[in-house]
Amino acid sequence: MTGLDPRTKIVIIICLSTLAVFLNEPWPLLLLFVFTLVVLLLMRINFFRMAMRFKKLLPLLLLMLIIQSVFTAGGEVMFSFQGVHILTTNGIHSSLCILFRLLTFFSSAMIIMTSNSKDYVLALVQLKIPYEIAFMVLVALRFLPVFIEEIRDTLVAMQLRGIDLQRIPWRHKIKFYTHLFAPLLSSVMLKAHQLAITMEARAFRIYRRRTYLRLLQYRVADYVVMGFFVIATIAVLTRGFLY
Amino acid sequence: MAYIELENVSFCYPGQSRPVLREINLSILNKGVTAITGANGSGKTTLSKLLTGILLPTKGRIKLNGQLLTSLTLTQIGRQIGYVFQNPDKQLFCETVEEEIAFGVRNLGLPPDQAAQKVREVMDYFELTRHAQAYPLSLSAGEKRRLALAAVFALEPGLLLLDEPTTGLDPYRKKLLGDYLDKMLAAGRGVVLISHDQKFINRYATRLMGLQDGQFIEE
Ligand SMILES: Nc1ncnc2c1ncn2[C@@H]1O[C@H](COP(=O)(O)OP(=O)(O)O)[C@@H](O)[C@H]1O
Ligand SMILES: [Mg+2]
Questions:
Q1: CB contact set of A108 (below 8 Å; sequence gap of 6+)
Q2: pLDDT over 90 for what percent of chain A?
Q3: Which residues of B touch A163 (CB under 8 A)?
């Protein structure tokens, strides 16, 4: 499964997230999530190691689940305080749905990382998306880490000049974070300008038709996997109408 | 006593097999000009980031004034070492030149009138008063470097660490930079100069170190 065409991977992600959107019961959603994990395993992606990187978002997720379960009314009351229904079966039901849905989105998005960004540009081009747009996507992917690096440098410079970001209170912190934008914006503008000149110097768009050194080719495995995912997704989504 | 002390320091960027620096032992005093030279990619900038605690050594330890660097925050280190980045654009983040210098001064805890006085002095000293209201990133390369230098200088660090400060400076600006270095020395501060500007080094360095294959050779 690691050698799949990037277009196949895009189809897999679309299928998985479509299912996650349309399924509305905790059990099928859990099943979908487990299935996604199996797909990740087959692609040799370590879900748990990736998830650890996002552990800072955990409190936010928890808060969302609690709010969701508290504010959804209906069903049997499991816990109430002074006549206010705090926990109902419907609340638990909907927060479980959200949990599994988010986990599925998150883990299916990881599939993207198994191809490099150039392949996705080729994939987009071969899906008949104009090269200009595909190139913009590539540039965005290419420069994101650079900008993150620059923000980090500015943060270091601020600290070296006497601001201890760990110690100052939150409302002041926001003021200091605004200092990050000016250098970032100016460096974005500068890089965009330089890139535009470089591209023209290298004859970007000089001919209407662009050719590519390498072409993506579907293999049998791609057709099989894509067929399976599309048919399975349609089957699951339409089963409601069939009965 | 040594201002900065490196003991068996090795450093390797994550995900790379070849270490950039290997088993470095070095002490740096806060007087005189210590020049560090070396080819492109020999690890000079990496070393300077280790000295300021931006990067942590993979092996060995670094002491600043007898304290382990790992026990200090960047804020505390910044008070003792004034670091001018190889690319000073990255350390300018305020709206005006005056703000840029005032940013550090405000964190010194001086009363407002003294702080304002100090900002004026520093601007004057570095001949930046003319540009006080200019946007830092729109200055010329040499002016940006001077501003970055002024901004860290305002914190009165005991040691200045300059990463390739003469890049892009014309002979006159180089001479000015050299004059600042002399003034710094006269004020009892040390300078670490990373550069391969041979002429500049010959003129100002009191100690010359070469970085090669991750190790130092004293010259
Ligand atoms: N952030 C980084 N990640 C990985 N490798 C790096 C990074 N920064 C520098 N290097 C590598 O470390 C080596 C030393 O770089 P550097 O310290 O910038 O050299 P110098 O300043 O002497 O020109 C180079 O081979 C460079 O490719
Ligand atoms: Mg360098």
A1: A12, A13, A16, A17, A20, A36, A39
A2: 26
A3: 75, 103, 107
Q: Say which of A161, A186, A187 has its CB closest to residue B104.
A: A161
Ligand 1 pocket, CB under 6 A: B 13, 20, 38, 40-46
Which atom belonging to ligand 1 lies closest to the Cα atom of B15? 4
List, for residues A79-120, the tens digit of each pLDDT value.
Answer: 777 777 777 888 888 889 999 999 999 899 888 888 887 888
For residue B160, give both structure tokens.
């200045």
Ligand 1, from B16, B44, B46: best to mutate by most atoms within 8 Å of Cβ?
B46
Spatial distance between the Cα atoms of B160 and B181, rounded to a whole number of angstroms: 9
Query: How high does pLDDT run on average in chain A?
Result: 86
Report the residue from A161, A180, A182 with minimal CB separation from B78.
A161
> Do B137 and A183 lie within an 8 Å CB cutoff?
yes
Write the ipTM. Answer: 0.87
Per-residue pLDDT band for B123 (boundaries 50, 70, 90) equals: very high
The pTM (predicted TM-score) of the whole model is 0.75
Pair (A94, A198) in one structural domain: no
Distance from the CA of B165 to the center of ligand 2, in angstroms? 10
Q: How far apart are alpha carbons A167 and B134 in whole angstroms? A: 31
Would you call B218 helix, strand, or coil by DSSP?
strand
* Domain boundaries along the sequence of chain B: 4-218
Cβ-nearest to A154 among B93, B107, B151: B93
Other residues' Cβ atoms within 10 Å of the Cβ of residue B50: 24
Under the banding of pLDDT at 50, 70 and 90, the label for residue A157 is: very high
Reported as type and span, the H/E element at residue B107 is none
**Domain limits at A34?**
1-115+216-243
Residue A187 has pLDDT above 90, yes or no: no
pLDDT bin (cut points 50, 70, 90) of residue A243 is low
Same domain, A199 and A187: yes
Give A46-72 pLDDT, tens digit per residue. 888 888 888 888 888 888 888 888 887
**Does A185 share its domain with A243?**
no
Ligand 1 atom 1 nearest Cα: B13
CA of B59 to the centre of ligand 2 (A): 21
The kind and range of the H/E element at B37 are strand B33-37
Specify the fold of B4-218. Answer: Rossmann fold (3.40.50)
Which helix (H) or strand (E) element contains residue B27?
Answer: strand B21-28
Residue A166 in contact with partner chain B when CB distance is under 8 A: yes
| Whether residue A40 is found in the same domain as residue A143 | no
Cβ atoms of B163 and B44 closer than 8 Å: yes
- From the CA of B90, how far away is ligand 2's center (Å)? 14
Residue with token string 């010329």: B140
Spacing, Cα B90 to ligand 1 middle (Å): 17
